[in-house]
Design goal:
- Strands 1, 2, 3, 4, 5, 6, 7 and 8 form an eight-stranded mixed β-sheet that branches.
- The longest helix is centred in the C-terminal third of the chain and has 20 residues, at 159-178.
- This protein has helices at 13-19, 21-28, 37-49, 119-135, 159-178, 196-199, 209-222; strands at 9-10, 54-58, 61-71, 76-87, 93-94, 101-110, 141-146, 151-156.
- The protein has a single domain (5-183), classed as Lambda Exonuclease, Chain A.
- The chain has 223 residues and is an alpha+beta fold.
- The protein is built from seven helices and eight strands, in the order βαααβββββαββααα.
- The chain is 37% helix and 24% strand.
- It is globular.
């Protein structure tokens, strides 16, 4: 299946979706947003990584910042922080307007340190899958650069990770087409969410009107 361009979702949304489906829907369906310290620091780090599209060449290395990417198969579009093209005439891929062949390396910048959740990994893998489709090549790994530890962490794009990316985007498209904002079970992670005051997670514990009416009808039937 291939999606039309007008139906593309924001690739970066997979990180919100992996963290909390309700958070993703509030941002991408209901267009709600609120900053906190984490989001401000993250924006500053990304701004340093790229400020509009730019590229540079260092001997056999090409560096592209702010590169626009997309995938009609996943139905998404987005921007890569940094894409490195290392010249390798034996194993690389051809690039339009460039001599030789190049191996593709993705680098995504993140604030803080490596996390236990895999939202960052899913986003990076999705970027890799987009570039594979665009460049007609295979990309087996990418890197996450964390601002706190100041180094890259390698991420392998195995089959299981790729399937999770596909399934997650399919679910996102399903919610988006219905304009549906799901409820969630409140957890400790709600305290770190910038949308906590807009989401009001405690309300998700309340029964829906439909459930309330169904319960009352059941009670009357038993009586």
């Amino acid at each position: 299946m291939e999606y039309k361009e007008e139906d593309y979702l924001m690739l970066s949304g997979i990180q919100h979706f992996a963290f909390c489906r309700r958070q993703w829907a509030l941002i991408h369906i209901e267009q709600q947003w609120q900053e906190n310290l984490r989001t401000v620091e993250g924006n500053i780090l990304h701004k340093k990584a790229h400020d509009g599209f730019s590229s540079e060449k260092r001997n056999d290395l090409l560096i592209s910042r702010g590169m626009q990417i997309f995938s009609s198969r996943l139905g998404v579009s987005g921007v890569c922080d940094v894409v490195e093209f290392h010249r390798d005439d034996h194993s690389g891929v051809s690039l339009f307007g460039r001599e030789g062949k190049y191996i593709v390396y993705l680098v995504e910048y993140k604030r803080g340190e490596p996390k236990k959740n895999d939202a960052d990994i899913l986003q990076l893998a999705a970027q890799g899958m987009c570039l594979e489709e665009m460049l007609c090549c295979d990309i087996d790994k990418g890197y996450l650069f964390y601002g706190e530890i100041r180094r890259r962490v390698e991420v392998r794009f195995d089959r299981e990770l790729r399937e999770r990316v596909k399934e997650m985007f399919a679910e996102m498209h399903h919610y988006y087409s219905r304009r549906y904002t799901p409820k969630v079970k409140p957890s400790k992670s709600c305290n770190a969410c910038s949308l906590k005051d807009l989401c009001v997670p405690k309300l998700c514990k309340n029964k829906s009107v439909k459930s309330y009416i169904a319960g009352k009808i059941g009670e009357e039937g038993e009586a």
